[in-house]
Design a protein that fits this description.
The complex is a heterodimer of chains A (365) and B (272). Chain A has 365 residues and is mostly helical. Chain A has one domain. Chain A has helices at residues 21-49, 75-89, 95-121, 130-149, 158-161, 178-197, 205-223, 226-231, 243-261, 270-288, 291-297, 299-319, 329-335, 340-360, and strands spanning 58-59, 62-63, 163-165, 172-174. Chain A has a two-stranded antiparallel ribbon with strand order 1-2. Chain A has a two-stranded antiparallel sheet with strand order 3-4. In chain A, a hairpin with a 2-residue loop joins strand 1 (58-59) and strand 2. Chain B folds into 2 domains: 17-25 and 32-127, Leucine-rich Repeat Variant (Alpha Horseshoe); 130-272, no CATH class. Chain B has a two-stranded antiparallel ribbon with strand order 1-2. In chain B, helix 3 runs antiparallel to helix 4 (47-59) and helix 8 runs parallel beside helix 10 (157-170). The longest helix of chain B is centred in the last third of the chain and has 17 residues, at 189-205. Chain B is elongated. The termini of chain B are far apart. The relative contact order of chain B is 0.07. The chains are: A mainly alpha (365), B mainly alpha (272). The interface between A and B is medium-sized, with 23 and 29 residues.
């Protein structure tokens, strides 16, 4: 909304600042962080009072009962501060911003429904059934795919929209309508990988912030102006630059949430937060046309989701044995006796390395 | 191939698996015809069903199918988790027979780590200290050809933990004591923690090592990277040292057993 103030530049010169994504990004970070910090204690009290508490569970023998009763659904706080900052600082007439806000609402809604079922049944096993979750994610992927790949709803030229951009190469792969299938699979992978990573205090949010930062940089490069994009051998994506402001809001909301989620956590994001984060980051990657870079920057998510897949489907289902001590991989490290803060900090370091690797692909083309 | 068939038709096993789950949760005696069902499940292509059958044999204490457990444990083509649960079932049945002893000793060399670990624990639970068992454990831990200096060749920390416990229960000689001292210097604090309890267990029987144990335990690295705000190893070691200082009479098996860390309840829980 503040974006509209730039129209009053003639009346008061400094208002032109509201036209610059860089200025509005800073505003978005500060706003999201401030909203989180101010409303966080209130939201946590509210969640506790309404019984939104984590249910005790065991991960294949690893006892985490000490965390039982911690307020969950903290994703509401994160999404609240994200929306506050985005509505205030983003250009809401921008189609990409609308799509990513819709993704946040949609995936946050699925996650919240899942969390509410778990809380109502007082069991982590009795949330939304896995196949319904997949169905909802596939439905979103299909909807975004249709909007993305058809005129006039596509924000980009159709040839560009249907091309998979590869890192380390200035050329892409034209997938045609096959890109639709790719979008569906990509959205399912993105949202579930963040969901699987969210198992220890602060573990999911920092890598998610780093991925948001990386995608923000890419959004700036490919969407701010045609010359910058051309210089770095990217195709210019009009309107994409506005996503920088959204990524900044996500960074601020993430930092605000981490304030309360750092070990020992005062609140968990729950599926409300983790599914929403995955959905948002996946949608951002699609809009910035950096799907492969998402997997590089989100290497931690890939490791976590990959270990779960290998353990469940290759190890247990096919071979009848464990491949890792426990899965996702952070539980394996915990099982080996590593402290939670040590595991989380090391994953943060890895996430930072993956983010740097992803940023390096900006220049290595 | 059998696993692939089972994987491609999961709906076929859904009903029997749910039924097996109910039976495992129930404390009722086995229903009529349960034997036939167990036999059918043990021959099922789905490892989950064979696994449930193995668990049910222990749950119902079905001694008639005891030999089937030995067969499952020795069948290297069987799914690893089923073999592991067969070893655990033998311990739960409490039948300390020569065939079980032989099968468990063979399982110490199983390629799957959970089977090796469970076999060592089952031997400790079922049998009394004996030279041959001690030798089997040492061979599995250190290698069959003893060439000094013997180094621990077991890569898996869970198995080393199980060996520390088993050697504490079954060890008799200087070699077992030395192996436990080596385990007390392990990189993993979990193994060190089990080893110090194992040492205490051993010296409670073999009092000639008592003085040396007292000295060497003080040198154990107490740093633990535990997942809780207190230091589990420090707690365990403190209790063991107190018991060792009080003398052999203080080292009751009950008291020491309480100090073992149990993967089923989590490493951060020392049993009260």
């Amino acid at each position: 909304m503040l974006y509209l103030l730039r129209h009053y530049e003639a009346w008061f010169g400094p208002l032109r600042l509201f036209g610059f994504p860089s200025f509005r990004s800073m505003g978005a970070v500060v706003t999201a962080l401030a909203v989180s910090l101010v409303f966080g204690p209130w939201v946590i009290r509210l969640l506790r009072r309404h019984g939104a508490r984590d249910q005790g569970r065991t991960f294949g023998g690893l006892n985490v009962a000490s965390k039982e009763g911690t307020p969950t659904m903290g994703g509401l706080l994160m999404l609240g501060s994200l929306f506050a900052a985005a509505l205030l600082w983003c250009d809401l007439s921008n189609q990409q911003v609308r799509i990513v806000l819709a993704a946040a609402l949609y995936f946050g809604g699925i996650g919240a429904f899942d969390d509410l079922l778990k809380i109502r049944h007082r069991s982590n096993e009795r949330g939304l059934a896995r196949h319904w979750k997949y169905a909802a994610q596939i439905a979103f992927g299909a909807l975004v795919g249709v909007l993305y790949l058809t005129e006039p709803s596509s924000p980009y030229d159709l040839r560009v929209a249907r091309t998979l951009v590869l890192p380390l190469s200035s050329k892409g792969i034209y997938l045609g309508w096959g890109y639709m299938l790719f979008v569906i699979v990509f959205m399912v992978l993105a949202s579930n990988s963040v969901n699987l990573t969210d198992g220890l205090d602060g573990l999911a949010i920092v890598p998610a912030m780093l991925v948001a930062g990386v995608l923000g940089v890419f959004a700036f490069v490919v969407g701010s102006d045609a010359a910058t994009a051309r210089d770095l051998l990217f195709r210019y994506l009009p309107g994409c630059g506005e996503l920088v402001v959204f990524c900044a809001a996500l960074l601020g909301a993430g930092a605000g949430f981490l304030w309360f989620n750092c070990h020992p956590a005062s609140v968990f994001m729950g599926d409300t937060g983790s599914l929403a984060l995955g959905g948002i980051l996946g949608t951002l990657a699609l809009l910035v046309k950096q799907e492969v870079v998402f997997f590089i920057a989100g290497g931690v998510f890939v490791v976590e989701a990959g270990s779960s897949f290998l353990q469940d489907y290759v190890g247990l289902k096919l071979l009848g044995r464990r491949i890792f001590f426990r899965a996702p991989y952070h539980h394996s490290l915990m099982h080996q006796g590593y402290g939670e803060t040590k595991v989380v900090t090391r994953f943060w370091i890895l996430a930072a390395i993956f983010a740097v690797m992803a940023l390096a692909t900006l220049k290595l083309r | 191939m059998r696993a692939l068939v089972a994987l491609l038709s999961p709906h076929r096993w859904k009903g029997p698996l749910a039924e097996a789950g109910h039976l495992l949760d129930s404390h009722d005696p086995p229903p009529e015809g349960s034997g036939r069902k167990l036999d059918a499940w043990l021959a099922s292509p789905a490892w989950e069903l064979r696994n449930a059958a193995v668990k049910l044999i222990a749950h119902w204490r079905d001694e008639a199918r005891y030999a089937r457990l030995l067969g499952v444990l020795g069948d290297r083509a069987e799914a690893g988790i089923v073999r592991r649960n067969a070893a655990e079932a033998l311990a739960r049945l409490g039948l300390a027979t020569p065939p079980a002893r032989a099968a468990l000793v063979r399982a110490l060399a199983d390629p799957y780590w959970e089977v090796r670990s469970e076999a060592a624990l089952a031997l400790a639970a079922l049998f009394h200290p004996a030279e041959d068992l001690e030798q089997a454990l040492l061979d599995a831990l250190l290698g069959a050809r003893p060439r000094p200096p013997r180094r621990i060749r077991e890569d898996n920390f869970e198995v080393r933990m199980a060996h520390a416990r088993a050697l504490g229960h079954l060890g008799l000689s200087r070699a077992a004591f030395d192996a436990l001292l080596a385990l007390a210097g392990d990189d993993s604090w979990l193994v060190r923690s089990q080893a110090v309890v194992g040492i205490a267990h051993l010296v409670a029987r073999q009092t000639e090592f008592f003085g040396e144990a007292h000295d060497r335990l003080h040198g154990v690295d107490r740093l633990s990277e535990g997942c809780v705000s207190f230091f589990v190893l420090r707690d365990v070691l403190g209790r063991v040292l107190r018991a060792v200082t009080e003398g052999p009479q203080a080292l009751s098996a009950e008291r020491l057993r309480a100090l073992y860390l149990d993967p089923r309840t989590g490493w951060n829980r020392v049993r009260p």
